[in-house]
Task: inverse folding
């Protein structure tokens, strides 16, 4: 904070000095003010209100200096007076004496004004012009990508992301894959399955680990009745990121059922149980065990698994299997009690509402963020 006041104080001193009749030569004044306005431009990011009046005052004295006027436009935009910023930057960009670099700077500022005021078509025109100038291309392309995203023009978003990657070397594959998947979703709902397949293939090319492309491909193939291909796509997606397993599993199980292929399915689910800590693959496996070996075997399998990964959803499934099994209720109750005890021990009963730290006993001072009085009893319906 303190550092803000040093240049401001110096600036105020300079104004007072001028008022007091102390004359600098014009070039000195211009150089001085240019320096201050550059500094102020940064300052404005922290404390625009305090800097604003000083700034406007000096800008009046210095109408001809390019830097000053660019900074003034920046100020208008930050204050929300975008129309004023646009008028200023438009006038600035049309000045005949500008160097190429200044012209580019004025146009960039104008493009940002248009973005801010939601005039995306005008921003697009300005940035498309700027993108043709090598030096400014990355920044302009970044804006164009944002514009085409908000317009949901995925082809142009992809094209500009590719150009951005080529210009900067910054990898854009993950973003391009998302855009291709958006395109595929649109083509699929328009009934153009072949175009959707091609878009998904390009998504994979851009990001070989794209979970979204795998899920979309699986859906597309399942809809077309090609369940073996759907299974390959869903399994690939789940392997790339097991966190998506709860969403993928219902579709995958449907395709397994259509193909009637059980041993591969069980092997895959067992593999997922190793890589995913949640209960979803265990429950899916329990259903397969139930279908193939009966309720009793499924109940024993699930009870065994729940010892390692206690879960409320797992308990609910175990109760269902026990009711269906219609035997050995006391042994089942024993298992359920054991699992419930583990759930109670594992779940924190208190949580800091500032930093999210979880604890099993109460602390008046949060052990993690050191704030006082922020750790409170947790309203957790799985535990309380
Ligand atoms: Zn805390």
Result:
């Amino acid at each position: 904070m303190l550092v803000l006041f040093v240049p401001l104080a110096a600036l105020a001193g300079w104004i007072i000095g001028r008022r007091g009749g102390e004359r600098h030569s014009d070039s000195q004044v211009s150089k001085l003010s240019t320096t201050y306005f550059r500094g102020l431009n940064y300052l404005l990011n922290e404390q625009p209100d305090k800097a604003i009046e000083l700034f406007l005052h000096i800008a009046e004295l210095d109408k001809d200096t390019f830097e000053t006027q660019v900074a003034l436009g920046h100020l208008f935009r930050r204050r929300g007076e975008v129309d004023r910023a646009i008028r200023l930057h438009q006038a600035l960009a049309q000045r005949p004496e500008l160097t190429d670099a200044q012209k580019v700077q004025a146009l960039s500022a104008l493009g940002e004004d248009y973005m801010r005021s939601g005039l995306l078509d005008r921003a697009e025109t300005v940035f498309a012009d700027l993108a043709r100038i090598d030096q400014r291309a990355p920044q302009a392309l970044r804006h164009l990508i944002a514009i085409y995203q908000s317009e949901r023009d995925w082809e142009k978003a992809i094209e500009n992301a590719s150009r951005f990657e080529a210009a900067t070397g910054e990898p854009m594959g993950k973003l391009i894959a998302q855009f291709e998947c958006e395109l595929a979703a649109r083509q699929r709902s328009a009934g153009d399955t072949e175009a959707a397949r091609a878009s998904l293939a390009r998504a994979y090319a851009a990001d070989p680990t794209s979970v979204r492309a795998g899920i979309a491909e699986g859906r597309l193939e399942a809809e077309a009745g090609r369940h073996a291909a759907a299974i390959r796509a869903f399994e690939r997606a789940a392997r790339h990121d097991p966190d998506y397993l709860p969403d993928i599993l219902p579709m995958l199980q449907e395709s397994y059922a259509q193909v009637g292929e059980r041993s591969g399915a069980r092997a895959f689910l067992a593999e997922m149980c190793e890589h995913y800590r949640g209960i979803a693959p265990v429950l899916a496996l329990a259903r397969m065990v139930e279908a193939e070996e009966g309720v009793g075997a499924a109940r024993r399998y699930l009870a065994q698994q729940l010892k390692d990964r206690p879960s409320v959803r797992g308990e609910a499934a175990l109760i269902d299997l026990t009711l269906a099994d219609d035997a050995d209720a006391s042994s089942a109750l024993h298992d359920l009690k054991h699992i419930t005890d583990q759930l109670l021990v594992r779940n924190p009963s208190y949580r800091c509402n500032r930093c999210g730290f979880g604890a099993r006993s109460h602390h008046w001072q949060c052990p993690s963020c050191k704030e006082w009085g922020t750790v409170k009893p947790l309203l957790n319906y799985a535990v309380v």
Remarks:
- Residues 352, 354-355, 357, 366, 368-369, 371, 374 surround zinc ion (CB under 6 Å).
- The radius of gyration is 32 Å.
- Residues 171-246 form a domain with the Serine Threonine Protein Phosphatase 5, Tetratricopeptide repeat fold (CATH 1.25.40.10).
